Amino acid sequence: MKTKEILENFFQAYFHQDWSFDYSTTLDGVAFFKKNEPESKHREVAKALSELISEPELPQTYFYSMGGEFRPEVEGMKVNQWLRAAIDILQNNN
User: Fold this and answer.
1) Are 32 and 23 spatial neighbours (Cβ–Cβ below 8 Å)?
2) Would the pTM count as exceeding 0.85?
3) Would you call 67 helix, strand, or coil by DSSP?
4) Which of 1, 11, 2 shows the shortest CA–CA distance to 65?
């Protein structure tokens, strides 16, 4: 599966327009994904998110282009800060 497709599946499934009814923050959504998906999916999404970090600072609306209904700035983060925090959750063994 290509990076774009992996990210679209992740953001559309877990950060749809009603995501805030399911979790209080987007990083809680990442933790929910980790709890409910197999480890192979954690690795796949973490790798895809890692590829984005090498990009110059992505616009706050980037996640919308992938089907996610949020901007990291609402939670006080730049896009790359959010990516690093999400990757940390996915790669943490807890």
Assistant:
1) yes
2) yes
3) coil
4) 11
Instruction: Give the pLDDT confidence of 4-38 residue by residue, as tens digits.
Output: 999 999 999 999 999 999 999 999 999 999 999 99
Please, are residues 84 and 36 in contact by the beta-carbon 8 Å criterion? no
φ/ψ (deg, to 5) at 80:
-65, -30
Query: What's the CA gap between 1 and 8, in Å, rounded?
Result: 11
Q: How many CA atoms lie within 13 A of 1 on its CB side?
A: 15
Tally of CB atoms within 10 A around 85: 17
When comparing pLDDT for 56 and 70, which is higher? Answer: 70
Contacts of 17 by beta carbon, 8 Å cutoff, 6+ apart: 69
Computed on alpha carbons and rounded to an integer, the radius of gyration of the chain in Å comes to: 12
CA distances from 50 to 18, 19, 21, 25 (A): 26, 23, 27, 20
